[in-house]
Amino acid sequence: MLLTACSEQAPEPSVKNESFQKKLLTQLIKAKPGDVITIPEGRHVIDRALSLNVSNVVIKGVGKDKSVLSFKGQKQGAEGLIVTADNIVLENFAVEDTKGDGIKVNECNHLTVRDVRVEWTNGPDTKNGAYGLYPVQCENVLIEKSVVIGASDAGIYVGQSRDVIVRHNRAEYNVAGIEIENTIGADVYENVATNNTGGILVFNMPNLPQPGHSTRIYNNQVFANNTSNFAPEGAAVSGVPAGSGVIINSNDKVEIFENDISENKTANIIISSYFSAGYYSEKSTAKDFDPYPETIFIYKNRFSGGGDSPDHLELKALKVAQFGFNGRLPDILWDGIVNSEKISEGKLKKEYAICIDNDTAGIINVDAGNNYKNISTDIKPHQCVHDKLPQVSLQRGS
């Protein structure tokens, strides 16, 4: 069942409980494998970052709107909680108003995040922390039934990881609602992404330990992601147009299917290369980095609305020129930039193509690599299918 709203109200603010903070810090420092660290009901004011580096530990509260760690006025550290360990379970608590990232997990094998809320309670703000839930270089990751609000980069971000499931979450009022970056094997399904700048992003960036591929995005609700971009200048997502539903950038083997995608004012789906995203320079890009999105399969989605008021001047002008003041861009917007070595008979070879099997959904190739000179809405080069990706299967922790 998809989440539609937070069902409970957070507890009223309480006076700082120094004895609880001291107890929690002690439990984390002295943790042993097998420990369960409990966060009781209440709003607990924490003024310094928490860390855990012991494996096989559970941190749990009694509800993501009942057991609240408030970092408002944080004096030390940036993250709320940073974990560097394996076989970790985080569940049923909230982290609010951290100076930097909410919960960061490094190099973890077997991570479960369940019924956790990370929120910046002042709403969208460039000064908010970058990431809400933030596993990096992890394997066997499950994030479910969680809520992230107000991140100035990505609400739920999984980077440089393998074998990932992100399901039944709600991401709202972030720059990027859910972002899968440089990750191999991810299933993103039955989430709600709304009121972000961009709903669900699948990116590859250069100069990172691994390229990503093989992501399935399905059965999600991705609607009205029209919040103005509030990322700090220079952040990777600072160029994301407000009004973006699903964005694929420089990533390969991505399936987008059976989603409800609607009312995203720039486009319901955007497919782009690193070249048109405003990041590329010869000096900063690794030689073996593949900047082209390839082997993309879009099918059986339900589209409505969107494309009527695109962000960025070039797209506004393009929309008016091609479809009039009252028209709208097609559901799928593609920058049209391809690897010339993979072209045959004037189009991408089938194994690398953007394939669309989605009823009346249309595509616009804006020819960004040629200054928008040869814009096309021809669907024929995209009337193809790819072999479907396998379901992600997580290994059990030890």
Query: How far do the termini sit from each other?
Result: 29 Å
Number of distinct helices: 2
Q: What is the count of β-strands? A: 32
Which blocks of ≥5 consecutive residues have pLDDT under 50? 1-10, 279-284
Short summary of the structure?
This protein is mainly beta. Helix content is 6%, strand content 39%. The chain is built from 2 helices and 32 strands.
Fold and architecture overview:
The chain has 398 residues and is mostly beta strands. It has helices at residues 18-29, 313-323; strands spanning 36-38, 42-45, 48-52, 57-60, 67-70, 76-83, 88-96, 103-106, 109-119, 131-136, 139-144, 147-149, 154-159, 162-167, 170-172, 176-181, 184-189, 192-194, 198-203, 213-218, 221-223, 244-249, 252-257, 260-262, 267-272, 294-299, 302-304, 332-334, 343-344, 347-348, 354-357, 363-365. The strands form three sheets. The chain has a 19-stranded parallel β-sheet that branches. Strand 29 (343-344) and strand 30 form a beta hairpin. The longest helix is centred in the N-terminal third of the chain and has 12 residues, at 18-29. The two termini are 29 Å apart.
Topology readout:
Layout: H1 18-29, E1 36-38, E2 42-45, E3 48-52, E4 57-60, E5 67-70, E6 76-83, E7 88-96, E8 103-106, E9 109-119, E10 131-136, E11 139-144, E12 147-149, E13 154-159, E14 162-167, E15 170-172, E16 176-181, E17 184-189, E18 192-194, E19 198-203, E20 213-218, E21 221-223, E22 244-249, E23 252-257, E24 260-262, E25 267-272, E26 294-299, E27 302-304, H2 313-323, E28 332-334, E29 343-344, E30 347-348, E31 354-357, E32 363-365
Parallel strand pairs: 1-4, 2-5, 3-6, 4-7, 5-7, 6-8, 7-9, 8-10, 9-11, 9-12, 10-13, 11-14, 12-15, 13-16, 14-17, 15-18, 16-19, 17-20, 18-21, 19-22, 20-23, 21-24, 22-25, 23-26, 24-27, 25-28, 26-31, 28-32
Antiparallel strand pairs: 29-30
